[in-house]
Amino acid sequence: MGVLGHSTSAQSQNKFVETALAYALSYVSAVSNSKIGSASITILADTDYYSHHRSKDCTNPTRRFVDFNVSLTEAHKTGLGSSAALVTAFTAAVLGHYLDANRLALESDLGRRRLHNLAQTAHCAAQGKVGSGFDIAAAVYGSCVYRRFSPSILEALGEVGSFGFSEGLKALVEDLDPSNKWNMQIDKAAAGLPRGLRLIMCDVDCGSESVGMAKKVLAWREENREEAALLWATLQRGNEDLARELLQLAQGPTTGPQDYNNLSVTISTIRSLIREMSAKAEVPIEPRVQTDLLDACCRIGGVVGGVVPGAGGFDAIALLVEETAVPALQRFLDTYQAIGNEGDGPVIGRVRLLSVKQDFEGLKVEDPNVYADWTR
Predict the structure, then answer these.
(1) Could you say which DSSP state residue 31 is in?
(2) Would you give per-residue pLDDT tens digits along the chain (376 residues)?
(3) Can you give the pTM of this predicted structure?
């Protein structure tokens, strides 16, 4: 049995939804003999995934789901990995609807692993490339230290609807081929956040398309292999140093003041490497306006450091901040005005501190009654 996915309206096309649906139903068809019945699906996006400046519901910005008054293609994203979160949650919902717990228990270790494998495969297909994979891993497992799988794992799968696709996808998701095993590393024990620190995300309301930016960086890497390899290795060591320093602080004394100097230096080192990559690849991973914003935030007492997260660009910043410094940071952001120069690219506008927070839980099953007002 196979599944052939398509959109019935050019206006409604969304490659992440379409691909995730086609892959999920293909997997369901391969593991279950039951007929796949019709279903009505409502997709809700948390307000923190998108900027609010054109929302119909801007008078009540605390609502979890709002009408942004624009089509999805025109929405400004906040850089939180919304496509990965969408694919993961959407895939889990489809599997949970069509497969009973005896077939696949999503709360179990095996269920999470298979969801991870299926969501990674669908997300890579929708993006047209194999990315870092971390955003899918974080959506499934919560905060963790993640080492990506080998891209070659996905090479032999083929296209949705092609002969043998569903069975091939099942073998891939369930890791049945001994010569083509998933080799990612997911270490939740190695991830820690020191007491008294918060991971803050800020919407800079000037979104960029991470797929296009990432492709340019990868093209530069391919053309400059030796130089890029050295830079990548140095950045990897910096990331490992950061994870190690965070874990040491998290496991340290539970009373008394914390010394965040090493943590601050490590973050600054990572930023300098990102700016070097940005300049060499001629891609605005940390553009000048973001550098100015991050530097200004880091001058506030209690702000340990910050970066432009994900694939970079103009749409967001992430900061590590002492809990006691959050009100001062909020006051600063409320009045922040970016200074842009001609040729620097977009000039950022309002900077909004988001309500999202770091979490170790990842995927969870929620009470559908919570969403009753939006699904009637």
Answers:
(1) H
(2) 455 544 445 555 789 999 999 999 999 999 998 889 998 888 888 888 877 655 555 445 556 777 777 777 777 777 677 889 999 999 999 999 999 887 788 889 999 999 999 999 999 999 888 888 999 999 999 999 999 999 999 998 999 989 999 999 999 999 999 999 999 999 998 888 998 899 999 988 665 555 577 788 889 999 999 999 999 999 999 999 999 999 999 998 877 788 999 999 999 999 999 999 999 999 988 988 899 999 999 999 999 999 998 778 888 899 999 999 999 999 999 988 776 554 556 666 788 898 888 888 899 888 888 888 877 7
(3) 0.83
Contact 104, 95 (CB under 8 A): yes
CA terminus-to-terminus distance, the chain: 33
Six token digits for residue 337? 């005005």
CA angle 49, 326, 244 (to 5 degrees): 80
